[in-house]
Design goal:
295 residues, Metallo-beta-lactamase, Chain A, binds zinc ion, alpha/beta, 14 strands
Length: 295
């Protein structure tokens, strides 16, 4: 098997942020409405869809910072393709399998790839999870002992009666030894963050900023990386599967549509305030090229 596709953006010439890496920790195919929604109810397209997308990447990101290396998202667990009991039984498990199919080969595994790029799990200072869907939180069990930041709104899903209805599998998210740190954004008067009005500055130095980008899930967050003379990056999780759709107001038919459209407008507004901003989505085939493009 070929090695999993990866890309890196070299370290800027100055500042606390170093290189940023994207890894491909598996492949997914989804239904067309999961990419380009039209307002169709999720249950309807889940029941009626007859076609799949191409196989798309499942990306995670590694951000080097002088105060420690940060992992953004954890990807899909290989156990989901090897263990028959990974998904809920009955109709709910059937729905999960109707909505997405995954490929995770042994060489795709997160822990293996982190070691290969010189950032083994034991060296991570913290991790951020954009939202708790299986293909973003799937490998959280590998992060025992590493602080894991998740929005407070997303963590609240774990207390619902049936988190599985929100795409959250508590049997795998609540992993032994894993400690979640809830993120509460605070109001900011930074004019460049005006579209969001609130953020969480991970290190307090203005370089790694979590901003609320709800809609796809109630507590989805994106990570804005500001890095000196290099173009800023926005890691958006599943806000979009194709960054060219956001300016056209096309969002997935997964989640709360008005909130998704508002989030899309805010990201487009951020792009006008931060020229050169690169929007990097977890399943966008263009993400690796955009990350590796010269400054
Ligand atoms: Zn998702």
């Amino acid at each position: 098997m070929p090695a999993p596709a990866r890309a890196s953006s070299p370290a800027p010439s100055a500042g606390p942020v170093g290189a940023v890496h994207a890894l491909t920790v598996g492949r997914v195919r989804v239904r067309p409405k999961n990419i380009a929604g039209t307002g169709t109810p999720m249950l309807w397209w889940t029941l009626t869809a007859r076609t799949w997308s191409d196989w798309l990447p499942v990306h995670v990101f590694v951000v080097e910072h002088e105060r420690g290396t940060v992992l953004f998202d954890t990807g899909q667990s290989r156990a989901s393709v090897t263990e028959p009991d990974y998904y809920p039984r009955g109709p709910l498990g059937w729905v999960y399998r109707r909505q997405a199919a995954f490929r995770v080969e042994p060489e795709d595994e997160l822990v293996t790839q982190l070691a290969e790029i010189g950032h083994p799990v034991s060296s991570l200072s913290l991790a951020v999870i954009s939202h708790l869907h299986q293909d973003h939180a799937g490998n959280v069990a590998a992060l025992a002992g590493t602080p894991v930041l998740v929005s407070a709104a997303e963590l609240a899903l774990l207390d619902e009666r049936t988190p599985e209805l929100h795409g959250v599998l508590p049997a795998h998210v609540r992993a032994p030894g894993v400690t979640f740190t809830p993120v509460h954004v605070a109001p900011t008067d930074d004019p460049l963050l005006a579209p969001f009005g609130a953020d969480h500055d991970i290190h307090g130095d203005g370089t790694l900023l979590l901003v609320p980008t709800p809609g796809h899930s109630p507590g989805s967050m994106s990570l804005l990386i500001r890095r000196g003379d290099a173009p800023p990056l926005l890691l958006v999780g599943d806000v979009t599967y194709d960054h060219t759709l956001l300016p056209r107001g096309i969002v997935p038919d997964v989640g709360d549509r008005p909130t998704q459209l508002e989030t899309a407008r805010r990201i487009v507004a951020l792009q006008s305030l931060l020229p050169g901003l690169r929007v990097l989505a977890a399943h966008d085939p263009a993400t690796l090229t955009a990350l590796a493009a010269p400054h």
